[in-house]
Amino acid sequence: MTIVKQVRSRILLIMRVRVLYFGVLKESLGRESEMVELPEPARVADLMARFEGEGAEWMRSIAVAVNREYARREDVLRDGDEVALLPPVSGGLW
Predict the structure, then answer these.
(1) What's the pTM value of the predicted model, to 2 decimals?
(2) What is the rounded distance in angstroms from the CA atom of residue 66 to the CA atom of residue 72?
(3) Partner of 63 for a Cys bridge, out of 35, 48, 84, 86, CB 3.0 to 4.6 A?
């Protein structure tokens, strides 16, 4: 559902996306998911910038999927999208 907000005589359209955290992200953030509000139009890069502003170094090395398909930073998000943040996987047994 798109939200309409009025700020200083301007009307902003706000969308909500569900962000899913996997692997070490889920562990370090202490949650599996959250709803994030972004002004429309928004791209994957806009969502990523929100975390980078918080000093999250891990954002540079993760993969992103939107609605279960890998996405690029320039891809456009839509209200109600599900965005998965996927950290790199390492380790294992030989």
Answers:
(1) 0.80
(2) 9
(3) 86
